[in-house]
Amino acid sequence: MENKKVDLYFGDCLARFEIELHDYDCFSVCLTEYQKNEEKSTDNNDFYEERFTTEVFVGEKELKSIIRAMQFMVIENNSDES
What we know:
Blueprint: E1 4-10, E2 15-23, E3 26-36, E4 48-58, H1 60-81
Antiparallel strand pairs: 1-2, 2-3, 3-4
């Protein structure tokens, strides 16, 4: 079984969203928040470190439910803007 992994980095909110396939029906969904470490940062280089991480393991059925919920939220948000 080949492992698959998707990492999405969001620089504007200092977060990473990660989904990884571990087995045929086992996915990990991980959300990590970063914060700037002012002591380690310099004028030319910002240093970020993990502030908080949440990881859950779900099956394919649960992952599809999460995706449908996210699509619903985007569709509802777009209809509110009209």
